[in-house]
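Annex B, item 7. Sequence and structure tokens for protein A, then protein B.
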Amino acid sequence: MIMTAMIVNGEGKRGDFRTNNLTNSIIPEPQYIYVNGTGGVTITPGSVILAPGCEEMNSADFLNTYLNNYYGFSLKIVNTQAELETFLKSQPSGTSGASVASSSSETSGTLKTSRATKSSKASKAQSAAKTLNAANVIVSQSAEISVIDLSIKPLGSLIDPAKFDFTAEDIKREGAYYLKTSGNTATLVGANPQGLFYAVQSLIQMLPVQFRDSHTAQHTAQHTAHAGQHSAEHTAQHSTQNTSQHSAQLSAQHLNRVNSQKSIPNLQVIAAEIVDFPRFEYRGMHLDVVRHIYSVDYIKQYIDYLALHKMNYFHWHLTDDQGWRMESKSHPKLNEIGSWRAGTIIGIFPGTGVDSTRYGGYYTIEQMKDVIEYAAQRYIEIVPEIDVPGHSMAIIATYPQFSTTPNIPKEPAITWGIYNRQNNVLAPSEEVFEFLSDVFNELMDVFPGQYIHIGADECAKRWWEESAETQAFMKEYGLKDENELQKYFAKRIADMVHARGRKFIGWDEMLDDGLVDGAIVMSWRNVENGIKAAELGHKAIMTPIKYSYFNVAQKRNEDTLCHRSWYAPVDSVYLFEPVPAWVPAEVAANVLGGQGCMWTEYFPHRQRLEYGIFPRFSALAEVYWTLPSRKSWPKFQLKLVDQFDRYDLWGANYATEFFRSSGLSRNKR
């Protein structure tokens, strides 16, 4: 049944406002959407954005940059209703009336926007596009100028929750929004700035992808070829410089597709009405930059992927056995020694040997601050991680006295999976805790977010058992066993974090040792550990390996990426339920949400990385945004076909196993 009632008119009845049988390809699926199918908005280079405030300008800038990067034009932005009316009156009838962004202008794959300043003139100057070479592009004509109206205000002024099956609190959530496209106006209203930004993401996903042509089949074949290749090389080509080159090459691909169009077509957006809000407050993705480091430019591209999927946390894994990736002013030797390894394992562990190429690097404080600001403009908080007391080989290679075996030479690990095989744990001593205080405070000086990740996983306690000095420390401090020692480590670091007004996250091994007050458990081994933490009154973040680790294969026997026994197809990711139905409401309330993880042992460059994350990234976004009653695997499969077109538009790589397993075709229409 296709509804005719509109939300604003208040004619809907409880529970009957839902996705109807007309097409929408928004990922993640909105909680409530009515698609009319006719009378939508046409966006042309002559359209105009109304953005009355600084936060509205931030979302307007993002939309404009997206249009510029991927469609070859940007829109005029006005800040007041009077300015809008003056602009509309000034436009000749039947013409688009606005300039178009230069197709030859230099752009990267990232969506470069900035928070609007108090000066609307300066803000508009940042958003203004260069004039397009008229000989290269013919601007489509439009009889009416469409308006994209951005605003932030309580959604209760637009809709009556009593007529639907959500509450007044739902539409006050961080990220709640209302969107309506009808006639010549797209109305986007956020309950808060983040909500408006998410409304823009939904509008972006309602845009048609213009480049469905012969490149699609060719690109699909190229992706299949990429998937079968395993890099055994860990030379300078896998440095941050080369990662940047990969990024530039892929960005050039989508720019070439834009430039190849001799005409910029009108972008027809379906008539629809949406009320939406996130299910969970924490929706994130992780990236390990230790095993393989990625350029700042690509980190920004990765953050854009989060933004386009309405994710709001980026977990940045900065330290591990194979390297220390953040600049340290207090301990510069960490960058001189700990940030570099002598070589890298060749092939799948245990490998066929180790190359002899020095590998490494680190992010400067200024680079990290740049990334933090870039993420903040997209309402994404960065969760930085220093992983201790295990996974500390890079630290003890720099400071051997911090090891339980200080007389045995150490170096940053040149292989993977050294847990319990090499001594990579910190010894307990006041000197070590002073060091940890230095680096964690340094981390918190740079990263302003509420969450600090302390690791606390895979600490091989055998090295503490075998150390007389460690046993003496335990006796002095009244610690009866090694589990209590690890809890003591967590407590000391927790005190450092809490003293700065922050909260700490650790992997779910903390449960094995007993949880410190205030611990937030990131459950990676299974779902049950997250629920157990929630039952104990602690907050939990789900990222179970079976459904959330995107470094594992997407099909059986795909041994070019990881061990054959591990695989997570996109359907299992999508159908994953982070809070089983049997969990009591008071326990479920302690589950903050969840994230996907990308460990980069076998992902040395962008193409391989994106092959691992897409399309599973998109599936996971819907898991943590959309209510279970609104999800539909059959419908998601159809939306995913459109999403592959967007991957092509973005210049992103991806796996194509979905098409084989689903039986769907890129040409489903």
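Protein B:
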Amino acid sequence: MVLLVPALPWKRRLTLLVAAGVAYAVVVSPWILHNLHRFQEPVLLSYGAAGVLPQANCDDTYDGPLLGYWSGRCAFPSPDDIPETRNPDPDLEVVAEEGLEFLGDGDESVAANIGLERGLDYIRARPGRAAVVSAARVGRIWGVYRPGQSIDLDTVVEGRGRAVATVGLVVYYELLALGIAGLVVLRRRSVPILPFVSLALLVTFTAAAAIGITRYRYPVDLGLVILAGVALDAGWRWVRAPRRRSGTPRPRQSERSDAGAAGAAGRDAQPVGSAG
């Protein structure tokens, strides 16, 4: 975004970009080095994507009620990867422990790579259907595809509570409407809107590539609160300026001062006794 700021010269933009890169490297480098030393397979920040891809790309999520969501039955290691004699009625923690035993000398990074390949293989085998699923994910995260089911999933899977999930969805719709209005106001005022647009694009891309889940939308929700404040402030200013809306221009400060001075001079020049 720094490179797209027109008010800054290119030298200043590049300086800010380098400074941001250095600051990022200082913060995350210790964690990256720790991960590279700790795991058998290369891991940078995390191997979360390897857990998401197989759960988001399987038969359960490509059709049926969980279209565009995720399914724990598709995770790796799953009960299907573990001998039934060892775990006939698996608990999730037991599955994880025995799954690592199933890998032999492998660690979590090895399991992550296997899960990653499973998810990618499933996508490659169904490119046309994958596009439909991505659209469903985006629809879920923006609250336009099966919003009622999203309340159920947030209640059961995410543990938010039905009342909280319901109120949250209603408030989100209100913030979305106000946020769009606030974005228009900022645009008309020539205020940069790229930070807010970037949040929306980032969330949309994340949902399309991963899962259409409510908590992935939280960065946008924060931006919507700011934009809603802008819209409410603009509406309040509009209500407080009725004469300006009717087309009658407000007198300038100098005109009001001149009119006041003329009135005072007229009163001073009035003859004594003329009121009688």
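Comment on protein B: The chain is about 65% helix and 0% strand.
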